[in-house]
Amino acid sequence: MDAGCRVRLHGLVARAELNSTVCTLTGPQLTNGRYPVKLDDGQELAVKLDNLTLSVCGEHAPCSALARTCWGCGAVEGEVVFQQCQLCVDRKLAPSFFCGRECQKASWPRHKLWHEEAKENASRGATDAARSKDEFVATFDERVQTTAQSLQDVFATHGYNAHAQAETSRYMEMQTVGLGLMHLGNLAKAAKTFRKSIKLCDKLPFGFYNLALVLLRSNDAFGGAQHALKAVECLGPLHSTSSGVHDQTWAECYSLAFKAFYSALHKSPATAMSIEPPWWNDGDLRRISKIIVEKLASDADAWEMRAWVLCGMIAHTYPTSSIPEPSSHCLDCREAARCFFKQAELAPMKKTRCLEAAANCMREAQKVEELARQHGVPFAALAATLSVLATALRRRPRRAALAAAAAADASLPLNQSSRSGGDATGTCARADARGGAGEPEGEPEGEPEGEPEGEPEGEDEGEDEGEYSYEGEDEDEDDEDDEPDPDFEGTEGPPSSPGVSYTVRKKLSSLTLDEQLRFVRSVEKMMEPGKGVRGMRGQSAGKCPRVWGPP
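Now predict its structure.
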């Protein structure tokens, strides 16, 4: 077994409650003969090989509409037939399956909470259905006609024969029946209908898309994410041309895939990351979300997706994601706030939550601008630096200096004349090279990083004035031929760009490890909970609302 594979615990005596739990193998065999594993809730254990079984979990299983996975441990159904939860059947939910009675008992506390959430979702869905019944009936036929026309275009483009057209017509009839059952609240029969339609034709995305909707309403975030991503895979060349023009179906599938995968991340990050799509990165998400809001201008979820992508909520909330840390650029925050305002207009029932999120974005932008005015540096570079520094301790406590270097690379190229007004001054202090044991004392006004407000008191022993300093001069910002500061000649880094990034790099490189950690903590303290970087991380701040509520 290699590190990173999923294993299932069994035969434990001292921790019997963990039997049938699926966890991740984190490394090779230890000196005591045991293997290190990590549970999804963060617990780390050292377990004997006899108590580990390689688990072919649902997250590694093929994304098939007919594949059954155990709700408790994630094992794929094989020779042993899985049994479904009777409570799921009674409540007409998409049924959950278990590999055995022991696994069901061990997972019942979690599954009971799952049912409570599903019950709340059903109540909310019934209220929405009763309120929008007339609108649903009015638009349902239009959606069917639009889909039929789309299929006719596909037939004409790809030359389907009459038999294929007949099968696809039956396929679309099953979509209509399934949507009707879903609207009536019979999610179990709706899921069964969509699964049959996928078995009939697995080349089109509609069955996977609708099945994902049903599973999300049944509070099955991981299953919904699987089938939503499968719908995106099925799009292929059918809904996007070689010139990059995308249609409404493409936008709807990607929008649902984003919502479903993000919901799965919220519930179980470790499990969801096993099916992470290749486009789950900052650059692609920005591009995709921009297309989606253009194609679905009247869809509230599309504007919400665009807002969370812009404000960098994903990376702050789930550090295990491969999304690079975004710079909290105040222009992005203001654009995200505008998207939240647009969502509030389109979804009156979510108005309060949207306005709170928009207010958080505006406070973030205003704080960054205020720091820039106080310290005389462009706010874009300051925001990029603070964003990386504030998360350095949380992500990799032992690599704060490297995080500062990453901030330096991400910041805008600056020179001495780029500070606002041209008359601000700044000093890059460095501790004595012999010990490097000096926490930066009270920084003079004009320090680019903005740490004076957050520096802990009583950390000024061993401070040295340092030989690296520069003075701002009244020069044109657009002058690219400025003479480099002689103090920086012969040092690493661009001598003509000693702004925020260069200053932070020089400062942290001169500090000891403990001093680096204290410096990062001081940057974090600058941001008040709910208003700054710390407040934009998600649930930890309390003031920022949930990204995706129960579907």
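The mean pLDDT is 62.
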